[in-house]
From TrEMBL:
Transmembrane segments: 35-56, 332-353
InterPro entries with a match to the protein in the record: ARM-like (IPR011989), ARM-type_fold (IPR016024)
UniProt keyword terms in alphabetical order: Membrane, Repeat, Transmembrane, Transmembrane helix
Entries under SUPFAM superfamilies matching the protein: ARM repeat
Taxonomic lineage of the native organism: Eukaryota, Viridiplantae, Streptophyta, Embryophyta, Tracheophyta
Entry protein name: Armadillo repeat-containing protein 6
């Protein structure tokens, strides 16, 4: 019964269930218990027979689905279209107009009954497809019926299902053809634009469909012809088409549509329409439409020309208008401010309004000026071939690139976005390829600029498609002893591979791991921090688009060729604080299994880490270094913990290799490092849980006292410490 109410009468699930319960209650059937009363069972059986026969309905007088007035109206319309009255669709004439219009008006009235489910019933029973076909059949002939059909269609196109039926049935094209053929008939214009408003509300696909059919040009034509009493629905349609209201879409195209509206003259036409004697409702709609066109066009301009994101672009547009005295907080523009607003719109259409003082066109922006100057060098505008670039250009080019780098580092600006949107990535990649091996200073500057503008999916894709990975790798291989170029090159790798699995793979295919090993082994003086950062980025599973990242395999490959050992050796060098932190984090990224842990321990890595941590306790290392070392040590302990879980064999090997002594030493030397104290407790627990021999060894080494101290000192260690004491076999573990 619930299903029947939902499907035939268009109720939602709650309404359908309530109606079914009420209907049964009328028959004396109580559904409050789990079992039906046997005294009422005969009555219930009879009721079920009525149900099967389709007799039970919640509407008095409706004995079957076909008896519902909405379905009766739809069937009558189908009769006309399916030639049941022996009149061909192509032969519909005015003798039918009255009959058809009355039928449609009745259906329209049914769909407007507040609180009813008539609209849902109509859409569920093919009403949208039927009305679209009918409009196509009678356009150009039966004017009154066509107006009524459009109004019904506008009332039943109301949700995703109905708008999709409208689109698949060719609705956009049919409605546009009707409007183009009757652009001076106000009633048809009103109906047609009402349909557009209903269909495009919350539906980016249908907005795009109408724009592809050049609805903007049709609107401009109607506004310019100054059709008397131009319908309010036209202004409403403008607002809907320019409203970013489809939550399924990440980046709406409506701002671009607004700019297109303004470019062809709709803003001016709307201003002229305001001069006509509009009624109050049309005046309100016209003002809102004007606001939608102009403000969204300004937003589009800020996004496309100045590289702002939508929120920034909208805020800038509002502020720009506020400077002109235009308050957008209300729905109506003050007529006192209208002349000022019209002047502003003219500036907008001419492309003069910008948010940066002194910038009168896109080419005047300092970022674009810098990019154009670089293009001049690459496009031979200065009569010097790219292949012939020499040191006389190095100074000029480096200064230009440094200026661009400074612009891209201005916090809060949109200069990076402007650079990427205007071909900056492709240009810098080409420039790096052109000057590598010759202009060292310029190459360093170019790499730093490139690392600053490769920042999102669009820019990283431009970098990849432009051959960026191969060019950068060639530069690094050719200059692997020049620290400044290494720093710039690995900065680009870090920027490009962040959050991008495809570029991580591209660099790995170009054997970036072998290059890193070569540089680490050659111990280039002051090996740049960006090299360690690049290791971390390449081994970070940070691309949310990928289900299964390959970085674990890359880490094993790094370790297999010797990078883990090389990083341990690097830690022995006199690294500065920031490089030391990065090296520790890089080693942590490479250490992903027990084999690598043993390799790190065997090469003295743990001793070095403990030394740095001990120095930190004595004031010799800063907190960042201590934190990085603690994190690395905790990672190694975590791997041992995992391998020892329910595996006495692995636990025995771990203790034999010194894991127990590591935990004791770490807990003794760094009692304040709560995360490491906690991880030590976890590791101890797994080492002794199924190994009585390990319990004896560790208890004799004094582990109990250290665990109890951690338990009392750190709340985060309480559970781990209690479990470790219990598995050590201590009766008072919970004290």
């Amino acid at each position: 019964m619930v299903a029947e109410n939902m499907e035939d009468l268009g109720m939602n699930p709650d309404e359908a269930l309530q109606d079914a319960i009420q209907t049964l209650a009328i028959q004396g059937v109580d559904l409050s218990g789990q079992l039906l009363s046997f005294l009422l069972l005969p009555c219930f059986i009879i009721l079920m027979r009525y149900l099967i026969l389709g007799i039970v309905r919640c509407i008095p007088g409706v004995s079957s689905t076909n008896d519902h007035p909405v379905n009766q109206s739809l069937d009558a319309l189908r009769s006309i279209l399916s030639l049941k009255d022996d009149r061909k669709v192509g032969g519909l004439d005015e003798t039918l107009d009255e009959e058809l219009a009355e039928l449609l008006d009745k259906l329209y009235d049914l769909c407007r009954i507040e609180g009813s489910n008539n609209v849902s019933i109509a859409t569920r029973n093919g009403g949208v497809e039927l009305l679209v076909s009918l409009c196509g059949a009678i356009q150009g002939r039966l004017e009154r019926s066509l107006v009524s059909a459009l109004m019904v269609l506008s009332s039943i196109v109301h949700d995703l299902q109905s708008t999709e039926s409208f689109r698949q049935g060719g609705g956009p094209k049919i409605v546009m053809n009707i409007l183009k053929g009757s652009c001076k008939t106000v009633a048809i214009l009103h109906g047609g634009f009402s349909v557009i408003s209903a269909a495009a509300t919350g539906n980016e696909v249908l907005k795009e469909a109408f724009m592809e059919l050049k609805v903007d040009e049709l609107i401009l034509q109607i506004l310019r012809e100054k059709v008397k009493n131009c319908p309010q629905s036209l202004y409403d349609a403008i607002c809907v088409l320019l409203m970013p209201d489809d939550n399924r879409v990440v980046a709406s195209q409506v701002y671009g549509y607004a700019r297109r509206f303004a470019k062809i003259g709709i803003a001016d036409a709307l201003v002229e329409a305001l001069n006509d004697d509009l009624n109050s409702s049309s005046l309100v709609s016209a003002c809102i439409a004007l606001k939608a066109v102009t403000v969204n066009a300004m937003v589009a301009e800020n996004m496309e020309d100045l590289g702002m994101n939508p929120d920034e672009a909208l805020q800038d547009a509002i502020q720009t208008l506020a400077i002109q005295g235009v308050d957008l907080s209300g729905q109506l523009l003050s007529f006192l401010l209208l002349p000022c607003f019209i002047i502003l719109m003219r500036y907008l259409i001419l492309g003069i309004v910008r948010c940066i003082p002194g910038v009168s066109s896109t080419n005047d922006h300092p970022v674009n000026q810098s990019l154009d100057a670089l293009r001049s060098i690459l496009s031979l505008k200065d009569d010097r071939k790219v292949g012939g670039l020499d040191e006389t250009l190095d100074e000029e080019l480096a200064e230009l690139l440094d200026k661009l780098y400074d612009l891209c580092r201005i916090e809060g600006s949109n200069n990076v976005s402007i650079a990427t949107r205007n071909g900056g990535v492709e240009l810098l990649v080409s420039l790096c390829g052109a000057i590598q091996g010759r202009l060292e200073r310029s190459l360093v500057s170019a790499l730093m600029v490139l690392s600053s503008i490769v920042h999102d999916l669009q820019s990283t894709e431009s970098f990849r498609q432009g051959g960026g990975p191969k060019i950068v790798m060639n530069i690094l291989k050719g200059s692997c002893k020049t620290v400044a170029i290494l720093h710039g090159g690995f900065s680009v790798i870090s920027a490009a591979a962040t959050g991008n699995e495809v570029l991580k793979e591209a660099f790995m295919e170009l054997k970036v791991d072998e290059l890193i090993l070569q540089i680490l082994r050659e111990k280039v003086k002051n090996c740049p921090q960006s090299l360690y950062d690049a290791i971390c980025v390449l081994l970070m599973p940070d691309d949310n688009r990928v289900v299964a990242s390959q970085v674990y395999g890359y880490a094993r490959r790094f370790a297999k060729i010797g990078i883990a050992d090389a990083l341990v050796e690097a830690l022995n060098d006199d690294l500065n604080s920031s490089s030391l932190v990065s090296a520790c984090i890089a080693l942590k990224a490479v250490t992903v299994n027990d084999e690598i842990c043993r390799s790190v321990a065997g090469s003295g890595g743990i001793d070095i880490i403990l030394k740095y941590m001990d120095d930190g306790n004595k004031g010799g290392s800063d907190r960042a270094v201590i934190k990085a070392c603690c994190s690395l040590l905790a990672k190694i302990m975590s791997i041992i913990t995992t391998l020892s879980l329910r595996s006495p064999e692995n636990a025995a090997l771990a203790v034999e290799a010194g894991a127990g002594n590591l935990a004791i030493l770490a807990m003794q030397k760094f009692p304040a490092a709560h995360q490491m104290q906690r991880q030590s407790c976890f590791m101890i627990r797994n080492l002794v849980a199924r190994s009585p021999e390990n319990r004896t060894i560790l208890l004799n080494a004094g582990i109990e006292k250290l665990i109890r101290r951690a338990k009392g000192s750190h709340g985060s260690c309480k559970d781990a410490a209690t479990a470790a004491l219990r598995d050590l076999g201590l009766d008072d573990y919970d004290k």
